[in-house]
Amino acid sequence: MTNRMHVLLGLGCALLLESFTSLTFAAQSSVSLRGQAVAKEMFVRIGGIEQWITIEGDNGENPVVLFLHGGPGDADSPFADSLYRGWEREFTLVQWDQRGAGRTYTKNGPSIEPTMTMDRMVQDGIEVAEFLAHHLHKPKIVVVGISWGSILGASMVHARPDLFYAYVGVAQMVNWIENVQASYTRVLELARRADDQPAIATLTAVGPPPWNAISKWPQFRKWQRAYQAKNVKVGPPNMTRNPAYDSPDERAQYDEADDFSFIHFVGLDMSGPLTHVDLSALGTDFEIPLFIVQGEQDLVAVPYLARAFLDRLTAPQKEFYLVPGAGHAPSSGGLSLILQILREEVRPLIRKTESRPQPDER
Description:
Helix content is 38%, strand content 15%. It is an alpha/beta fold. A nine-stranded mixed beta sheet has the order 1-2-3-5-4-6-7-8-9, sandwiched between helices.
């Protein structure tokens, strides 16, 4: 979750990205990528607006992995090259700046806010998956949902299992209210154990969630971040910004989108769309394999809630992984584990699925 809490009034957006290629999903033909590298960045018309997508891989025959970034509003496109360096040799990697985030926000501006419902965000993700399957000649793809993106990812694969080989949820969020309540309880417990009087005073003054004013969030978030940092025992990965996203204008627009999305989805009175999320409403039946990866010390997506969620589900295969010493933010160990899951669990099941005879082959 972002901790930027300044409210941006009169959000203006100079649409500086007009020079990028704008592609319309309905009008695009698929491309043959057999044995060829693929490196594309483009706007694709998704859900009635232009949305930014990048595709990179050394071999078009490799499985396609769609990453759903966190936030809401924290697009991973600027950092993907450093976070996932080397993965493109084995997988075709797709980054998508969601509605209200990154270059998608820059292209469309704040006028899209009324369209930013949870249902629309999930449907956007499904349309992105449909585009990728068509464009890259794939019957299905793999989806990796990260934090906020894990809400979208779980909802997408439940609604359209026919589009996906497997789902990997990283820092899986399940229920906003329950997560914040569990996090508050844990942070206050850690503060009391440390006899941290400033933290105790602030947290008890704020009181336990749910809250009705966004002004309470940064007061809690300050200590959540502080104790997250104290408990993390593993180092962060290399996470540097791609120079193409590093101009002052690009950075400013990224931050503007981050604020815009967070304030919209959480709400000034903390009753925005995100605060009503409860993935248990999806039901317990999932038709594809599920892999959940949580940092052992995650104070944002509390691990036991994600574990309890997975335990309730039925799926062809399901696995839960804890990353020792890791928190909510990406870690070197966490990224290595995700890659290992993709290699050793997901890729074999893709081969197994694709080797089955299709109805017209029998």
